[in-house]
Structure prediction request, 231 residues.
Amino acid sequence: MKMLVSVRSVAEARLAAADADFIDLKEPRDGALGGLAVETIAAIVRALRADASPLPVSATIGDLGMGEIERIAAAVRAVAACGVDYVKVGIEAAPGAAELLAMLARCGAAIVPVFIADRGVDPTLLRQACGTAAFPAVMADTADKRAGSLFDACPEAELRRFVGEVRRAGKLVGLAGALRLADLPRLQALAPDFAGFRSAVCDGDRAGALSAERLRALAAALRDPIALALP
Ligand SMILES: O=C[C@H](O)COP(=O)(O)O
Prediction:
């Protein structure tokens, strides 16, 4: 299971690059999928490429409503133009979501739909995303980071179905949602391709500073699943 870390600046990206497998660009203060200014995204991508970092980079477009298709299309174009490998777009079970997925399928960017799983994942929307060849990966994440982790928001059986369905579609599957060290054994059992972290690798809450110590500890725990299984 690989480790995705969300960062908001060049300094944080360089810090995370020492331990992470994927670098994800977002403004954690602005919600689950808070977007950074495109200038910041472009500057982080330039810095990582200048460092010859081999890590794939994703960026979010911001927390936009399912009905805001034109705004989302424009944001996807602007973020993709920054040179990121993947553009993450939140998908909620709300009117307009199916049309949004259809637009994203045609938009030409490498889109990762991120299912907001606080109230479960809509099976019809998930089927649509899994049936869309243009999406290289599909994620689940939570919007309300104070309500516990993804495991508090979503029954484990549902997460297992999510992982299985995305994997059977031949896509990478990622899980996130205020995941903590204590969640790693359950995560390892679900075995997504990658897990996303911000809250667990910050001093204080997810809006705080990224912690090199917490990053190292999490990376070590992910590398050593046997130790995780110990009491
Ligand atoms: O994409 C991953 C998320 O940024 C994870 O953030 P979180 O651990 O605070 O839910």
Notes: The chain has one domain: 2-223. The two ends are 21 Å apart (CA to CA). Residues 4, 6, 24, 26, 141, 145, 176-179, 196-200, 206 surround glyceraldehyde-3-phosphate (CB under 6 Å).
